[in-house]
Queue: 2 jobs
Job 1
Amino acid sequence: MDHDSLPGAIAQARDLLEHATSVAVLTGAGISAESGIPTFRDAMTGLWTKFRPEDLAMPEAFASNPERVWRWYAERRLAVSRALPNAGHHALFALEERLRGRDIDFTLVTQNVDGLHHEAGSRNVVELHGNIRRVKCFDRHHAVDAWEDGDAVPACPRCGSLLRPDVVWFGEMLPRDGLARAFAAAHSCDVFLCVGTSALVDPAASLPFIALEAGARVIEVNPQPSLAHDAILRLEGAAGELLPRLIGGETGA
Ligand code: BV8
């Protein structure tokens, strides 16, 4: 079979998933691109073009200008609230249901903070970088479910400290339990599906290579593949187009 061609690669990837005994998936911003959410590296549109995401998604940025950071997240939260899961999200839910029916382990690890995997029905989801729809206070991490959205950054009703999005900023530790589940899935899976990530952010970017070293087959779905290793099966294309073909059992070029 000509594995260099996309149909050949899809057929090979489908076969790997068909015979898998444990599957782990890592998604990045690319899987939400077809839901209208700009990827992380493309997010800086409009008035944000003079910033890099790394310059705003960090505690120091919030400490020095909380209003600016709060406003960036308020705009992103509004965009996320209007977005719907796309065919890529739905395909991963279908895969999880199919494997669940065969009592095969499935773990979906996402770097995304948009909550669209939950919206699509996925159940065993690890949100490594938190969720932009949730808000907590800066000092004590008190969860807050209602606040005044205005120019001033709201304060925590319990301790008075400023509110912030419940996401993991650069330089912050990832949720211990989620990270442990992600590493365990990468170590124990025999098929690792990596979708829509530039693999630039650690420790998430290490997961496909942990799986590879543990003997898993790694499949990457990305219009611009980012995982540099010869053993990785690359499906060059958009998640919303390729995942249904990979998981839905559709044939064709
Ligand atoms: C940590 C939440 C321990 C916020 C995010 C120096 C000091 C401190 C830390 C570090 C340091 N040097 C390195 C580090 C570690 C740092 C890091 O990795 N930095 C990078 C920039 C070098 N990591 C951390 O700080 C992490 N914490 O390590 O704690 C520690 C603590 C202190 C000191 C040292 C270590 C915390 C990282 C979490 C950061 N928070 N998000 C928010 O969203 O605002 S990360 C952010 O990037 C998003 O979550 C995003 O998902 C993630 C990764 O980006 P991608 O998802 O890959 O998105 P990207 O736009 O890059 O790429 C999109 C891809 O999709 C592309 O490949 C494209 O081709 C593809 N695509 C496009 N369209 C489609 C598609 N694919 C498929 N279909 C399509 N249609």
Job 2
Amino acid sequence: MPDSLAPEAVEPLLGGRFGRPYLYEERCESTQRLLDPDLPEGAVAVCDVQTGGRGRLGRGWEAPPGTAVLCSSLLRPPPERRIPELSLVGGLAAAEAVERATGLAAQIKWPNDVMLNRRKVGGVLAETVEGAVVLGIGLNVNQTRDELPSDSTTAPGSLRSVDGVVRDRAPLLADLLSALERHYDRWREVGLDGLYEGLGARDFLRGRRVFVDGRTGTGIAIDRSGRLEVEIGGERRLIESGEVGFER
Ligand code: BT5
């Protein structure tokens, strides 16, 4: 029996303002498109299967029906905050939710991947819509190995493929939303600095061999402004956005 993310399963578990309102559809093109920017901050859209799930830069996001957490939250960050930092805010909330669910350490691969056992188990997508931000989070929960995408550059995983446990998604989603609310509020107040301890401790690329624009270097760290510092050819560089590969 697949577990449920319908409102009757999730709403009783929500303790904060995220998930109010909670919009659920069994099937949709993308949860990124379900949120009217006029809804209150904290409105959340969830579905069981996306027919056009989106990643960054025109890429897709794939998950078989009923196996994943697919959610989008409506945010109205103050103008002084940098929107790309929200991928790290969402990534930290997702990594912590994964840790509480599995008891294993999760990491954040700059700028938006949630990693467990060196596999990508989640991704975050921040999109601006009419002055608001829609922050999408996809977490692979109950996919078997065969159900994970085969064409990914970063090896994919799910919580189940890592620890063999099949889980109810509703408590995981509720925990994710409560962590997101807490971290978002802190970020709103003080910026990324307020989350730096949690981020720095989970920085997947720190000390790894990385590939940037066809060159090999070493990951130094996510800095306090959310950029990635790398060393390439003896020089330190700060990367604002884009893609960084790593040696497995
Ligand atoms: C991301 O993009 O990682 C952001 C993914 C955000 C998905 C959520 S789900 C809820 C909300 N609604 C949406 O439509 N989107 C958001 P990016 O870094 O571009 O990674 C995309 C790449 O990851 C793809 O090109 C694939 O190679 C790979 N991929 C696709 N599905 C995956 C999955 N389930 N697990 C791991 N990797 C995947």
